[in-house]
Amino acid sequence: MKNPTLLQHDVIVPAESAGSRLDKALVELFPSYSRSRLQNWIENGQVLVDGKLARSKDKLVGGESIVIKAELPEQTTEWSAQKIDLPIIYEDDELLIINKPVGMVVHPAAGNQQNTMANALLDYLPQLAQVPRAGLIHRLDKETSGLLIVAKTISAQTYLVSELQARKIHREYIAVINGVLISGGTVNEPIGRHVKYRQRRTVSQGGKPSVTHYRVIERFAAHTLIKVVLETGRTHQIRVHMSHIGYPLLGDKTYGARPIVPQGASPEAIEYIRNFKHQALHARRLSFIHPTTKKEIHFEAPVPEPLEKLIEYLRSE
Fold first, then answer.
1. How far apart are CA 275 and CA 267, in angstroms?
2. Is 316 helix (H, G, I), strand (E, B) or coil?
3. What are φ and ψ of residue 194, in 5° steps?
């Protein structure tokens, strides 16, 4: 066996984590690692809080200094490599930028062990087995298209996760919502897991802080095309927040979107709108400071054809 990969993370606990258990806070601060891995590091004395050993159940008050010094074995994931075409739009020694298609799962999970982005990445770059979560810095829902960042090295992964948590990675989406918005705004509501439907998320006072900014791009007869910028990155955040304020994403039946057809629409438009099978959401733009050059880089993914066609139908009607 080769020598393990050594890593170190240093972070100051944000005020919003006050009252959280140490292990839960670490999951939030270091989403690239599983909770079980983080708990093992705590138990093995590889996590120091203000220079002292701590327990998983210890409560944080905010402002503490956390240092993680740990080892990653050569193989950090049991995910398998699989030959799948990757829509790469940029690559250098440190990172990849992927334009994820609709219908592709990002990480293997129960019921989706194959045909995921992670499977494809492990085939394209086998060394990503040594990087947490095959280098994926963030994720998109299965039915959301658009830009994803993949770190090719541990150092790039550490840097990019830190930038993401510090809200220094700019992520911009476009979406089509049901209803006509008068103006843009901000939704600042915590999001947690739904009490009854565990695969869903909902606005909940016991949830995690979540902030979504939205602006009107174009209004249609019964819908609006909007730009969305995330401050936080909770599961289903845009879908939950827009549904919460009464403007669910077109096609998003999980969060209450019913097909709305403009009066006088053509038969072709009616059929297309009613049969649009997924949420009308696309991660269009990314910008961030490069891990090594320290220069800001920008990326944009063209709107996929089905969403572009939907917009054209709405515009013409």
1. 12
2. helix
3. -65, 135
Contact partners, residue 198, CB within 8 Å, separation at least 6: none
pTM value is 0.77
Phi, psi (deg, nearest 5) at residue 259: -60, 125
DSSP-based three-state secondary structure for 297: strand
pLDDT tens-digit map of 145-158: 999 999 999 889 88
Residue 112 has φ and ψ, to the nearest 5°, of -140, 65
β-bridge partners, 178: 223
Q: How many residues does the chain have?
A: 317
How do strand 281-289 and strand 145-151 relate by DSSP bridges? parallel
Model confidence band, residue 1 (pLDDT cutoffs 50, 70, 90): very low
Distance CA 247, CA 236 (A): 14
Q: Considering only CA atoms, which of 137, 187, 186, 176 is closest in space to residue 259?
A: 176
One-character DSSP codes across 7-43: EEEEEEPPGGGTT-BHHHHHHHH-TTS-HHHHHHHHH
Return the active site residues: 141
Contact between 125 and 152 under an 8 Å Cβ cutoff? The reply is yes
Q: What does the block give as tokens for 75? A: 């193989």
pLDDT, tens digit (0-9, with 9 covering 90-100), for 54-107: 999 999 999 999 999 887 655 445 688 899 999 999 999 999 999 999 999 988
Q: What are phi and psi of 243, to 5 degrees?
A: -65, -40
